[in-house]
Design a protein that fits this description.
- There is one protein chain.
- It is elongated and about 50 Å long.
- It folds into two domains: about 110 residues, Ubiquitin-like (UB roll) (Roll); about 70 residues, [2Fe-2S]-binding domain (DNA polymerase, domain 1).
- With about 210 residues, it is of the alpha+beta class.
- Helix 4 crosses helix 7 and helix 5 runs parallel beside helix 7.
- The protein is built from seven helices and five strands, in the order ααββαβββαααα.
- The N and C termini lie far apart (about 45 Å).
- The N terminus is likely disordered.
- Bound molecules: FE2/S2 (inorganic) cluster (FES) (2 copies).
- The site of one FE2/S2 (inorganic) cluster has 11 residues, from loops.
């Protein structure tokens, strides 16, 4: 889709802004390490596509899925409505709560602020992809054991953020857990339980 929202002085485009905004506070550190590296070339190919739906494929939780989506569709919409992966929640739909956190190539992003077409051949991991061989990821089990979920709207995003932390830091301090979840908002106030669950899962994963 051709981007007509070019700001001449800054050179910032609407599409470029959303690509950056898609990264969670944790994932933003990966912006320069190449989460969306190579997308400029891809945009050259895509600019004549749309507004009608187009066919794409996407690697989601290790499976190649076919989609027919409009170029304006977000990754959150594609996951929930087109692929029926409703574990990813949409709460604010504007990049401020991180309820929609998924991983793209193991980097957390806000799926509501990421265009589905910009995923390209990168791998998307959602909350449905964490359990392996019918067994919950230790952080999922810890959330159950520590009663870290009330209404549940923030829970998949919280789990994706804390699971990402544990994949990189097997022995986090509580301050590091708070830092990893700083973009995840919980209206029910489950934070102390989330922190306990994460520290407990870290011990069990040793
Ligand atoms: S629903 Fe995506 S950040 Fe809130
Ligand atoms: S459990 Fe309700 S918003 Fe977090």
């Amino acid at each position: 889709m051709e981007d007509k929202h070019i700001t001449p002085k800054s050179g910032i485009t609407r599409r470029g802004f959303i690509k950056g905004a898609g990264l969670t506070t944790v994932g933003s550190v990966a912006l320069q390490s190449g989460v969306f590296a190579g997308t400029e070339k891809t945009e050259e190919v895509k600019k004549d596509l749309g507004p009608d739906a187009v066919n794409i494929t996407m690697n989601v939780n290790g499976k190649i899925r076919k989609l027919n989506i409009e170029p304006r569709a977000t990754l959150a919409k594609a996951l929930r409505e087109d692929l029926q992966l409703t574990g990813t929640k949409i709460v604010c739909d504007r990049g401020s709560c991180s309820a929609c956190t998924v991983w793209i190539d193991n980097t957390p992003v806000n799926a509501c602020m990421t265009f589905a077409m910009d995923v390209g051949d990168k791998e998307v991991t959602t909350i449905e992809g964490l359990a392996k061989n019918g067994k919950l990821h230790p952080i999922q089990q810890a959330f159950i054991d520590h009663d870290a979920s009330q209404c549940g709207y923030c829970t998949p995003g919280m789990i994706m953020s804390t699971a990402h932390l544990l994949s990189r830091n097997p022995n986090p301090t509580i301050e590091e857990v708070k830092h990893a979840t700083r973009g995840n908002y919980c209206r029910c106030g489950t934070y102390p339980h989330v922190f306990e669950a994460t520290l407990s899962a870290a011990k069990k994963m040793k």
